[in-house]
């Protein structure tokens, strides 16, 4: 049992070491001296073994208690629950200016207690600590999960593989700070002697979505705006030539710096776009220009060198940073510091670190990310709501939902427990969203009168911008926020037939105009949206995702589900090239089903442009 329990946690080297020290167990990632090796291993392995015996969280009594509790909650209605002020008070938390109100959840104080019991029983605190302490909790890849080390203060000590990684983190941050300062000041010049004022960041998935989200959120914040004055930052992610044209349109190669961002430096789309950008630069400025106009961010510095980039122009990170958790590595910090300056990004990292510290240290009952993650499990698994709407009342957060989609759905869209046991319940909610009030005029009809979709509202007290007309402040932020406050009550309380009739609504319209209410939401209120609070918000959601995964007992840090499509695309690529070369239509021997062959033949009928 012990062998089994640690199998997923050890690398081959570690296995040999630990087998010598403790013949019935393998190394499980904990750093300890040889003297306390055996004792430490017994403890860790026993804990893991205990977990293995109950590898499915759904087998434990705390899970069953919650499942039984669903019926009681289904008998309640939010419009009644909201009358109870003590309940409301018990469902409000605040941390570092981030105000969380979850009293519009379909939950009673008893639900909260049972959820916290489940969190305890799932070993949530221990799992959080294991993550922060650098244990190899990404078991299927044998990796630590240490994105929190990326924003640790300079003097911190975060151990991974027997060494403190914080000095390495800061070495890269210092390099970013120095390089971006040289570029921004004009000291670093392009091949023709001009300063580089435009940056194109090429990357996809986690190497694009987070940085784009942060960029959009900061691009209207007055201090960040001032720091970015005269500069342009654009992103190129898709392999679609339309995206290439869009990203490069109107750019002058002489003043453009291209940043290739790829953790692996093998992602097909990014490498193709990188080659396109290199050709675009060399066609205009000559081959030597690459040294001045192209830099890279990757964990694969050898591939960066093979691509022809000077290692001095490469900014590294580490395999213990997952792509979707990499915004606070050079993936986000380099392009965003080029645009906004390093001090702005330092504030962002400080905001993230503040929320990290809270997540690591606060008791579950007061822990904002833990509460969000537990409520997410409640809504999606126990109440069966497959979808969550992310509804920021801030246009600056327009790329929040697309980023959280990847963060959450790539992390928690899993079908097996950590040990590979198929799960008898669904994990990973479907996330989607749009800033309010735009969303209200788009899909809110469905969430008010159609399907029940738990909603997460995010608002800010002070706007980044105000509009003045003829010297008068136009209160558009006030207007925006009135909607932010109104929508959760409309969802929760609804409007019944009796009220409608009393208002004189004709009988034939009463059912059409009835709102059943009892639709759950929660509200997050930030004082304002700046680099620091943005960091808090992002860390809050990173840890919300991790919490749900920890409770479900899955590995939130791998992504095997994206592999099959990539493999099949390779096969299609080969067959398309072959068919183009030979002019032979694809048939049964090519290994595709007849539907795919037909589609491909329709595509192949037209010549590539
Ligand atoms: O295909 C999914 C994925 O591996 C993501 O996890 C990752 O964020 C993205 O591709 C990009 O990967 P890379 O940074 O290695 O190019």
UniProtKB/TrEMBL annotation:
Reaction(s) the record says it catalyses: alpha-D-glucose 6-phosphate = beta-D-fructose 6-phosphate
Example of a GO cellular component annotation carried by this entry: cytosol
Top-rank lineage group of the source organism: Eukaryota
GO molecular function: carbohydrate derivative binding; glucose-6-phosphate isomerase activity; monosaccharide binding
UniProt KW keywords: Cytoplasm, Gluconeogenesis, Glycolysis, Isomerase
GO terms classed as biological process: gluconeogenesis; glucose 6-phosphate metabolic process; glycolytic process
Pathway(s) annotated for this protein in UniProt: Carbohydrate degradation; glycolysis; D-glyceraldehyde 3-phosphate and glycerone phosphate from D-glucose: step 2/4
EC identifiers of the protein: 5.3.1.9
Family of the protein in this entry: Belongs to the GPI family.
Protein name: Glucose-6-phosphate isomerase
Entire-sequence positions represented here: 148 to 756 of 772
